Structures are given as C-alpha cells and as structure tokens.
Amino acid sequence: MATKIINDTPKGKPKTSGLGVFLKPLNS
Prior knowledge:
Residues 1-28 are annotated as: Disordered. One of its GO terms (molecular function) is phosphate ion binding. One of its GO terms (biological process) is photosynthesis. With 28 residues, the chain is mainly alpha-helical. It has helices spanning 2-8, 14-27.
C-alpha cells in the first residue's frame, strides 16, 4: 500500500523522498 502512495506522489517534490523513507520501513 505504501508503494502505491509513493507512486501516486509526484517524484519532483522533495516531500516524496521523505515520505519514501518513512513509508518504506512501515511497509516492510
């Protein structure tokens, strides 16, 4: 589910990287 959120978020925004770092461990 977290992966889908990251994919739906524009990769051009710095926020995406921050969310990816937080969501990736949560999704694991």
